[in-house]
Amino acid sequence: VKAIDIADSKGHIIKIFDGFRPPLAQELLWSIFPDERYVSPPSRGSIHTRGVAVDLTLVDKSTGLEVDMGTPFDDFTQLSNHLSTDISIDAQNNRKILLDIMNQAGLESYVEEWWHYQIPNALNYPMIKENYDVM
After folding, report:
1. Which residues form a coiled coil (predicted)?
2. For the chain, how many structural domains are there in total?
3. Which CATH number fits the domain that encloses residue 101?
């Protein structure tokens, strides 16, 4: 809720792409893209299978459009790195705005994915092993 309020004060809405990810969904992602920089192996589980991560972006309140982040969500390339300078200055600034909002709200970023945030000490939480229907 804190991040939502901070984003609102800066003229943005938070759009959530992904939160909790059941183990079956993690297995599917791994089968499609087995690269540990972007997808954790199912045997280890991910921060998402612990229920303590969220993938999101910002929407401009005045236009209702997602702001330019330089890549789409789940773009598993080097351009998705928070620190990439191979994207437009506007996209770099938008990533910084998102990072500032989420850090002020007490969440940590994952450097390889501009959209991924998690609570501190996320690996200290157990994996949720139940599989739920996913949309």
Report:
1. none
2. 1
3. 3.30.1380.10
Convert the pLDDT of each residue in 43-97 to its tens digit: 888 999 999 999 999 999 999 999 999 999 999 999 999 999 999 999 999 999 9
Inside any domain, residue 80: yes
Q: Rounded CA gap, 94 and 70, in Å?
A: 9
74 occurs within a structural domain: yes
Cα three-residue angle 113-130-23, rounded to 5 degrees: 35
Does any domain span residue 128?
no
Question: Which residue among the candidates 27, 36, 108, 113 is catalytic per the annotation?
Answer: 113
pTM of the model: 0.88
113 tagged catalytic: yes
Residue 134 has pLDDT above 70, yes or no: no
